[in-house]
Amino acid sequence: MQTSISTTENNLVIRLQGRFDFSAHREFRDAVDGALQGAGRRKIVVDLGGVDYLDSSALGMLLMLRDRAKSSEGTVALTNCRGAVKQVLDIANFGKLFDIT
Amino acid sequence: MKLWVFYEHQGSASALVDDLQGFGHDIHCSPLRAFPASESEDLTEVDAILLEACCYLTYGDSLLKRFSSDPDSAVPRTILLFSDAPNPRLATSAMLAGADPYFHVIGAGAALAARLSAVGHEGRRTRQDAHFQETEARYQRIFAEEGQTATFLLGRLVDQDRLLDPALRYWHHASGAGGENLLLAMRTPSGGLHLLLAEGACHSLATVANALPLAPTFYRMTEKGFGLDAIVRELNLKVRQFFAGTRSIPTILVSISFREGFVEIWNGGFQEPLLVGVSEGALSRPKEIHPPLGTLDMAALHAGVERFSFEHPGGVLLYSPGLEALLPADPARGLHAYLQDRFSDRHVFSGFDPLVAELDRQAGHAELNAGLSLLAVTTDSACLLPMGDDSLAADSDSFGAWAVRFRLGPQEIRSIDVVPMILGLTGQFALPPGKNGELFVVLSEIYNNAVDHGLLGLDSCLKLGPEGMGRYWEERSRRLSRLGQGEIMLHLEVIPDISCPVLHISCRDSGPGFDHADLMGADGNLHELPYGRGLGLVRSLCSRVEFNQKGNEISALLPLPEVIKKAA
After folding, report:
1. Which residues have C-beta within 8 Å of that of residue A79, sequence separation ≥ 6?
2. Within 10 A of B455 (CB to CB), how many other CB atoms are there?
3. Using CA atoms, how far apart are residues B69 and B98, in angstroms rounded to an integer?
4. Pairwise CA distance, residues A55 & B499, whole Å
């Protein structure tokens, strides 16, 4: 999975592309480490528009990101959720934990 | 009538012929001195022999032996004596030897004609009887052949070995015409038991006709892990297609879950089953009776099942109509009440054997127009069978449009990215758009669980905590690099030729298995689970998910949209 980070005034965006499963945990972890260093209290937005497939490992990684962001009083949102990705997030009731758009 | 006159005196013969003038008989005459030569004459179909009495002592025995019991004819020939004067002693001797008791005295033509008329009637009746017997014998042969054919065909359709299930006891009695009810039994992938009892026709071949749309579908869908409701829908469709709406089949289906202690019932026009040892509650007695299979079109069919919990050991008793004719049930109360009294405080099997003994005694005397059946099924969890290795091998005859099977050893598991590989392969078979994403989730969860927990023995608790994922991944990599033995078998098969096509996915690992009961019970709030979300996702996406008893094999059915069915 490929990751990239960009920032706006209010948000820090982690853009993901490819397959988001357990095999991507190192890339995601590195991206998260980088993002949290620079985030401060900005909202972290995970752009899932480029994700082909997503499984329960990805859900765990997103929860891990949320917990870490929370510890520094940050928030996490998920954006560009479509198709199978949105379907999985809906099944897992992640709308209760994240802003999903 | 065809008559043959044997004489010594020409004048006597002529006088006899005069007596028979005007009665329309076909009369032939032969002198007895030429008797050996008369052997060559055509004496077939002679209705009666008239023998001059004075010749009886010389030729009577030979004639009697030859004509009164012709081995080539079922009709005994009649031999009457004639003379110009009565001879009672001679007449008695001849009669005792087998000749007709009438002794004709020449001149009494009317009496002779009357006697010959009676002989003619008797001959015609005897010939008719012989014809009927021959016809009946022919029908018996045809019936026996049909019965043999039916037995052969039923033997191909019905898996008799499955009826030897320790959770099941049954009693069948065929009708007089060989018709019997249809009983099918099969274990599900998770060790549950499915049963089907359908009313047979009164005739053996008609019973086979009923079995044709029912048996293969029942076995196939149970083997694949379908629930009763899906099986009912498919059976109804098959019966309507097979009989073009001209026949319906009263049928009851039962599903027993030994592990979880419940029974599901769908009753399509059958007798109300008896539940033994049912938990207290509103639904302690089955209430729903649907029309028989094949009656309703698919839109009107209600395939939902009733579910009942059991206190162990409980049981279910199924029985066919007509059984009350063999049991001393009070007509005012009915057979169900009678059986309820007999089984009220007994294990379903301990009550079954004496009941069957009584039925056997009564059925031996009764003429039955329809087959009778009695089944007892126990819900005792001791009947939870260990799953053997045949749970995947059983489907070696694939029914789907396509199927793929992989056997992966340690080397393959280390080096092959299995899930994308399978997705790439299934992509060649044109799954509908959007299904790939669902298939990825299901495959990923199933396969990775088999690797992580089945072969590598990893505990999901390792994932907990801030560094949990990293710890888990490192431990996983370490164990995977050291994995020396073990295998995973993956099987995917499209099942298109049912009313709701599915992709059947199964995965079995060679690990020790696990207790999946808690995980299977969890539902609803996946976001609150520390782990185990994957199985929750699979259950949400699939119409059915089952583990085998050991917990090292999972079977899931992913529904496919209509476009696949039409394409297939």
Report:
1. A45, A46, A47, A48, A49, A100, A101
2. 22
3. 9
4. 29
The pLDDT tens digits for B190-232 are: 788 999 999 887 677 878 888 889 999 999 989 888 889 889 9
Which of B417, B422, B441 to probe by mutation at the A interface, max A CB count within 10 Å?
A: B441
Which residue in B100, B89, B92 sits closest to B63, CA to CA? Answer: B100
For residue B379, give both structure tokens: 């819900």
Rounded distance between C-alpha atoms, residue B500 and residue B560, angstroms: 7
Structure tokens at B394: 């059983």
- For B361-419, write each residue's pLDDT tens digit: 887 776 767 788 899 998 876 655 544 444 433 343 333 467 888 899 999 999 888 88
3-state secondary structure B169-212: EEEEECCCCECCCEEEEEECCCCCEEEEEECCCCEHHHHHHHHH
- Contact indicator for B555, B225 with CB cutoff of 8 Å: yes
Between B417, B525, B537, which is nearest A88 by CB?
B537
CA distance A81 to chain B (A): 13
Tokens of B478: 């370490």
Is A87 within 8 Å of B526 when comparing Cβ atoms?
no
- Contact with chain A for residue B10, Cβ under 8 A: no
Does the ipTM surpass 0.90? no
